[in-house]
Amino acid sequence: MIFFARQTCHVVLLVLFCITITNAFSAPPMGIGSLFFKPKNVVTPNLGDDPELLKAATFFTESFWAGKSKESNGALTPKQYKILKGSQSAEFRKRYGFKMGKDRRAELLVCKNEESDEIYGCAGIEVSKISTANGRSIQFPAPLMSNLAVGKNYRRKGLAEDLVKAAEELVLKQWGYSECYLYVEKKNKPALKLYKKLGYKVMWEDDTATSLTPTAKGNIASVPTVILCMKRTLGAGLLGRLFS
User: Fold this and answer.
1) What residue ranges of the chain have pLDDT lower than 70?
2) Dihedral of the CA atoms 206, 210, 212, 215 (nearest 10)?
3) Are 160 and 73 in contact (CB under 8 A)?
4) Which pick of 2, 45, 60, 188 has the fewest CB atoms within 10 Å?
5) What confidence tens digit (pLDDT) does each residue in 175-225 have?
6) pTM for the whole thing?
7) Of 194, 201, 145, residue with least CA distance to 170
């Protein structure tokens, strides 16, 4: 999802949130995928697999965008579904698709049942430019987590936390960064609770942003919102996080 700041057209990514669970999984592949193995939830990198990216975009549309349609009880109209699925597919391909000869520090992490191929959750991580609210400081490249979503039928079982930790492990062990950033809506209390629990701290907030929201009239409106930029210092231990 994308936020638009009104005054400077600063675009930031919303970390999309919803907590869920998984069924039993078989062992993940060797190599980078093995970094994310846990007996309960298995999170593996997409590695630019286009068919899976498109399937993840469909999952994301149904699990996040439909849930954001509060006015119509979580149901999207066919027109809304088509528009949002198309834009999400394009975004996933652009951010996480295979890029020959280009920087691959952008990955979509996916949790799914390897027998049925059903996707339970996903999270994106990429090296992106970070700036303060309304772009009032010099931008700098750093890992940015976004597009975190979990299916509504698998909530409160730790999958969102597993996805966050998998992204952090990739950032720290594979990319060599010691910090991870994310953007989240201030009104998203469950997400804020999770991120604070995991050691993320608020760096700044932007009250000039807008968020895309499906409406009961069948449109997709841009509505005012407040976003928070949060950061966690990785690999520093408890004391390091307290004073970061």
Assistant:
1) 1-41, 70-72, 100-102, 137, 236-244
2) 120
3) no
4) 2
5) 999 999 999 999 989 899 999 999 999 999 999 999 998 988 889 999 999
6) 0.80
7) 145
Give the position of tokens 């400081």.
137
Q: Report which residue type is found at 137.
A: S
The predicted-structure confidence for 153-182, as pLDDT tens digits, reads as follows 888 889 999 999 999 999 999 999 999 999
Rounded to whole angstroms, how far apart are CA atoms 61 and 90? Answer: 12
Please give the DSSP secondary-structure letter assigned to residue 172.
I
CA separation for the pair 226, 5 (Å, rounded)? 10
Adjacent-strand bridge partners of 233: 179
Strand partners, 146: 124
Strand pairing report for 140-150 and 119-130 = antiparallel
Find, among 99, 153, 100, the residue nearest to 126 by Cα: 99
Rounded Cα gap, residues 75 and 205, in angstroms: 30
- For the CA atoms of 172, 58, 218, 211, what is the dihedral angle to 10 degrees? 10
> Looking at residue 61, what DSSP letter applies?
I
Any residues with CB less than 8 A from the CB of 79 and at least 6 apart, and which?
218
Specify the residue for token string 């675009």: 11
Q: What three-state secondary structure class fits 212?
A: strand
> In the chain, which residue ranges form alpha helices assigned H by DSSP?
50-60, 66-68, 78-96, 159-169, 189-197, 237-242
- Mapped onto helix, strand or coil, the DSSP state of residue 239 is helix
